[in-house]
Structures are given as structure tokens and as C-alpha cells.
Write a structure and sequence with these properties.
alpha/beta; 53% helix; Rossmann fold; 323 residues; elongated; five-stranded parallel beta sheet
Length: 323
């Protein structure tokens, strides 16, 4: 889809229990070059969304069985479909019905009988928004692939990112972080080391100890990762994790030497689980430590001032044996 075109292509699901209404919308939309998928009740609409992945949904309210409000509510509560724009096409115009639609997650309203020019303008606008949303998702997918390619270079870090996401989310849920932070932790576990894509393999995969000069190069990876991900507004909440997961609670970490609660809480969480996973897995320079030994090392390093002691207490109260 080219947003500079006069007509944007797109797949539109039209849902209405009255055949004539569907046919009217279908004729108007197809004349503008859109592909139209008809549905005549709420249940079949939900099935078609899964099967066809439409770019936009025009949804009637008053239908037998499942009404438009419930269809919208279900689609907007599902991560797979929540970003599909939904226009409620309805003869209902009172404030209560509009508020009910907004509460269900409707993106826009079109009043029956609709004006053709208004229909086309709203469809074009929402398809443009969907196009940019899809572009952002594709960009995120590319970054995820980059992060996985970094992980794949080193057999010792296999599945490290997934484990960090899981541990981080467990700890975030344990301390009652909001859903937005939990999601940031999920993504942060995957993307925290994406900056290592800019570190030479000779340093990144070196089996022996790093020289001071090599360690200085390694310390650049949080900033490299931050700069790679910064242009994506959808990753705004993940940036502090990427940049600050090597900070220490006493201020002795890098890259910015943040101290205590200057370090964002999501980054403090990732720091703890990152070190824990490194201790628990085999690396070129060490064997895999037992859970008991790993926790003992974490306690010792927390006493040195490296990690948030309250977060460490919460982490150690998790069922780490079975997580």
C-alpha cells in the first residue's frame, strides 16, 4: 500500500445482517479499489477476521445474536486483532450508544444513511493509520531478528533472551508493575543486547579474558542498542531497559553511571535476571552454577551494592526451581 496514492488498496470486512446494506457498502468500496469481504452476523465476522486478516472493519450494531458492541469488544481484547481499525456503521445516534461504542474500542462512527464522500474519507484515513501501524510492526520484527542473530552467534547463550523475558515478567508481576511495564520487560528481554550487533565477533566471541580496550568496546553495546531502537516510538518504554541494564545500584555500572532509583525499575529488574541467567548457564569462561550457588553470588553482590536489595528479595522469593 502506497500512502501517496489517491486510492489506498486494502481489505475491508463489512458486517451487517441486512444483505442490502452489505451490497451497498460493497459497491461503494469496490468502486474505490478496495477488496470487500461480507459477513452477516457477529460470529461469522469473528471467524472471517481470523481467516482473512482484514485491514479495516465496517461493523453494524444491531444484529441478532452477537451485536456489534460485543464483536468489537472481543476483537479489541485480542492481541492478534486489537490494532485493526473498526468503524461502527449505525443508525443509533444517542450519546449513550456512542459512549458504549467508545468503551468497546470503536475507532470511528458512521451514521446511517451515510454520505459516500464521508465514507471514503474515513476509510482512507483509517487505512493510512493501519499501514503505518503495520510498518512499525515490521520494523519491530526486524529488530527482533537482529537480536536473535546476536544470540545465535554464541551457542552458550541459546534461548537466553526468552529466559530473560520470562524471568523479568515474573518479577514484574510479583511486585505489581502495570501491564505496560510487563510488556516492556517482555520486549526488553529480547532486545536488551541488540547493540552487540555492532561489536566485532573477535571481541564478542572471545573465549579468554578481555583486555581493558576490548572491555571498553563491549561497554558500548547498550548505547548502540538504544540508538538502533530509538527511532521506533512503539519501543519508547523498552529504551531504558536497553540502555541501563548494566547500571549498578551503587553507581558503578555503565554507560551513564546511574545510581539507586535513578535507574528505571524495569532496567533494575533486567539487570538481576540477566546476571542470574548468566550464573545458571555454562559460558566459555565458567561452568553452569547450581541454583544455590547462583543465589549465594547474587546475595554477595547485592551486599556490595550492585543490585536493588528490595527487588532482589522479591526475585529470591520466586519459585526459581520450577520457573
Amino acid at each position: 500500500m502506497n500512502t501517496s496514492d489517491t486510492k489506498l488498496s486494502g481489505k475491508i470486512l463489512v458486517v451487517d445482517d441486512k444483505i442490502q446494506n452489505v451490497e451497498l457498502l460493497e459497491a461503494d468500496l469496490m468502486s474505490s479499489g478496495y477488496e470487500v469481504i461480507p459477513a452477516y452476523d457477529g460470529a461469522s465476522a469473528l471467524e472471517l477476521v481470523k481467516a482473512e486478516n482484514p485491514d479495516l472493519i465496517l461493523l453494524d450494531v444491531m444484529m441478532p445474536g452477537m451485536d456489534g458492541f460485543e464483536v468489537c469488544r472481543r476483537l479489541k481484547s485480542d492481541e492478534e486483532t486489537m490494532l485493526i481499525p473498526i468503524v461502527m456503521v449505525t443508525a443509533l445516534s444517542n450519546k449513550a450508544d456512542r459512549l458504549k461504542g467508545i468503551d468497546a474500542g470503536v475507532d470511528d462512527f458512521l451514521t446511517k444513511p451515510y454520505d459516500k464522500q464521508v465514507l471514503k474519507a474515513r476509510v482512507k484515513s483509517l487505512l493510512r493509520v493501519k499501514y503505518y501501524t503495520d510498518e512499525l510492526e515490521r520494523a519491530e520484527a526486524v529488530l527482533m531478528s537482529l537480536a536473535l542473530s546476536v544470540e545465535a552467534k554464541d551457542s552458550y547463550t541459546e534461548d537466553h533472551c526468552n529466559r530473560l523475558s520470562d524471568y523479568s515478567m515474573l518479577l514484574g508481576e510479583k511486585i505489581g508493575l502495570p501491564a505496560s511495564d510487563i510488556n516492556a520487560l517482555r520486549l526488553g528481554g529480547a532486545l536488551h543486547d541488540v547493540g552487540k550487533i555492532g561489536i566485532p565477533d573477535a571481541i564478542l566471541l572471545k573465549k579468554g579474558s578481555l583486555t581493558d580496550e576490548e572491555y571498553t568496546v563491549i561497554k558500548d553495546h547498550p548505547v548502540i542498542g538504544y540508538n538502533i531502537c530509538k527511532p521506533l516510538h512503539t519501543l519508547h518504554a523498552v529504551l531504558p531497559i536497553i540502555r541501563h541494564h548494566h547500571e549498578r545500584f551503587d553507581g558503578s555500572g555503565y554507560p551513564d553511571g546511574l545510581k539507586g532509583e535513578e535507574i528505571p525499575i524495569t532496567a533494575r529488574i533486567l539487570t538481576i535476571v540477566d546476571v542470574f541467567d548468566a550464573l545458571m548457564t555454562e559460558r566459555p569462561y565458567k561452568e553452569a552454577f547450581s541454583l544455590k550457588k547462583s543465589l549465594a553470588i547474587l546475595r554477595e553482590e547485592t551486599e556490595r551494592g550492585w543490585y536493588d536489595p528490595a527487588l532482589m528479595d522479591s526475585f529470591m522469593s520466586l519459585d526459581l526451581e520450577n520457573s
